[in-house]
């Protein structure tokens, strides 16, 4: 489901996509499965707004660029996250387990065109 989605999905969004199948699946089953997949390192939970969303696992190198208008999420790979991890680890009093950077703005589809005047 997440492989074909090409977007972050909530548990309810996943349930909505599989609800037409032969076997009834409830929301708690989806949550338990996502929790297990997260423990196995297959998926990753992100909080891009007040709702938890899920995506295929990726390392910390990706920054989430979130469109404030349409909600589209772009993964931006950068060395800055690795630099942040090294800086935090260099403190000596803190070891980061996961870094999840979110930047809110507008995507190209939602940004108004710049006039030529």
Topology overview:
Layout: H1 2-5, H2 11-18, H3 27-39, E1 43-47, E2 52-56, E3 62-67, E4 73-77, H4 80-89, E5 102-105
Parallel strand pairs: 3-5
Antiparallel strand pairs: 1-2, 3-4
Helix pairs in contact: 2-3
How would you describe this protein?
- It is built from 4 helices and 5 strands, in the order αααββββαβ.
- The protein has helices at 2-5, 11-18, 27-39, 80-89; strands spanning 43-47, 52-56, 62-67, 73-77, 102-105.
- It is α+β, with helices and mostly antiparallel strands.
State the main characteristics:
117 residues, alpha+beta, Arc Repressor Mutant, subunit A, Dna Ligase, domain 1, two-stranded antiparallel ribbon
Give a brief outline of the structure:
This protein has four helices and five strands.
Which architecture of the largest domain does the CATH hierarchy give at level 2? Orthogonal Bundle
What is the radius of gyration?
Answer: 17 Å
Query: How many strands appear in the DSSP assignment?
Result: 5
Number of helical runs? Answer: 4
Under CATH, the topology of the largest domain is which?
Arc Repressor Mutant, subunit A
Coarse shape: flat
Order of the strands making up the biggest sheet:
4-3-5
Which bin fits the share of residues in helices? 25-40%
Helix-strand string: HHHEEEEHE
Q: Given the helix and strand composition, which structural class is it?
A: alpha+beta
- How far apart the termini lie comes to 46 Å
Proportion of residues in extended strands: 15-25%
The residue ranges in which pLDDT falls below 50 over 5 or more consecutive positions are: none
**Oligomerization:** single chain
CATH class of the largest domain: Mainly Alpha
Largest sheet: 3 strands, mixed
CATH superfamily of the largest domain: Winged helix-like DNA-binding domain superfamily/Winged helix DNA-binding domain
Query: Quick check: average pLDDT?
Result: 79
Provide the number of structural domains: 2
């Amino acid at each position: 489901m997440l492989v074909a989605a090409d977007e972050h999905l909530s548990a309810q969004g996943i349930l909505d996509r599989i609800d037409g199948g032969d076997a009834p699946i409830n929301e708690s089953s989806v949550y338990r499965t996502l929790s297990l997949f997260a423990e196995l390192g297959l998926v990753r939970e992100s909080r891009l707004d007040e709702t938890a969303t899920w995506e295929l696992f990726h390392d910390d190198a990706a920054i989430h660029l979130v469109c404030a208008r349409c909600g589209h999420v772009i993964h931006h790979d950068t060395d800055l996250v690795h630099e942040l991890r090294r800086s935090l680890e260099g403190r000596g009093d803190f070891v980061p387990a996961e870094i999840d950077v979110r930047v809110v703005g507008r995507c190209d589809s939602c940004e108004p065109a710049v006039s030529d005047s």
